[in-house]
Amino acid sequence: MSWCEAGTWQTDAVLRRLTLLLTAALVGALVLGGCSAASSALGEVAPSAPPTQAPVQVAGAPGERATLEYDAPFDVVRPGARTVWSGSGDPVEPGEPVLLHLYAEDGRDGSVIQNTWTHVPAWMEMDEDALGPNLYETLRGQSAGARLLVLDEDDGVPVVLVVDILPTQAFGTPVEPVEGLPTVRSGADGAPRVSVPAKRQVPSELEVAPLVRGTGPQVRIGHVLTVRFTAVRWSNGKVFDTTWSHGARPQTVTIGVGQLIEGWDQGLLEQTVGSRVLLVVPPHLGYGGTSSDLADETLVYVVDILDAHRPVVDQPESSGKKKKPAESSDNAQG
Length: 334
Fold this sequence. Notes:
Elements: H1 11-33, E1 38-40, E2 43-45, E3 56-59, E4 67-69, E5 80-85, E6 97-106, E7 111-115, E8 122-125, H2 128-131, H3 133-139, E9 147-154, E10 157-166, E11 173-174, E12 183-186, E13 192-195, E14 207-213, E15 224-233, E16 239-242, E17 251-254, H4 262-267, E18 276-281, E19 299-309, E20 330-332
Antiparallel strand pairs: 1-2, 3-4, 3-20, 5-9, 6-7, 6-8, 6-10, 9-10, 11-14, 12-13, 14-18, 15-16, 15-17, 15-19, 18-19
Helix pairs in contact: 1-3
């Protein structure tokens, strides 16, 4: 199956294809970058100048899907990968999870090949077997918040790909905890450990306390959130739900549309990506009035906000129209 048909692929299949693309891209970059004068019986022979790659403009703020500007049809003459901007979050670590947004276009006409921004980012393990050796090497040394541009050609299709590395746990500025609320400490893996105070009247209203304030975009109504969380009962401090257990994936939800309990819809609005937020949710903003065994419980959640975006619908094929470079964008060449 070619990249032209990738719009119907599942995320894991696209990542396997991405691995193959990066294999070719990095090999090409090494060949182009490692040319030197060749020895022969006739002496030193100067190499010819490498071909010039047409520019690709990458626009769009952090937390938004990239917009690509280039002259179409676009020819990939120098396959390779480069950093559009570096990340300031936690570094990508071998053996740990990695969360990626992927956006790729067919350079012939600008049609969309892959777009995780339509729903959820891809959750993978930072492992050579999971990612393939070359995607692994491309991500190694990068940090959350980085945006990478990859140019390659596959079966005659020029591929222009943007990879955004998202945080896998909260990062930002620690916030002084609120006295009297549950205390939270982080385990070695970053997972929150919650202790409910033994002597305090149970809150009757929603309590919202940021523990780490991230620097990403603010959460708005209608945003799709990717989060990791731990939830405990105030009554006994026991965990009843978590996405931090081995093999668990983050949860993706839409905020402010009635999909969540009211405590989440109210408490997570206007928080920022990268934040860790403590929510104490009384029954009337949780499961009160339902048949759930949590109906009479005050609930404590610790939520790490990893991503928040408005779903972006794939653009239609542009039928080979020339895409003019934008003046106010970041110039990135492979």
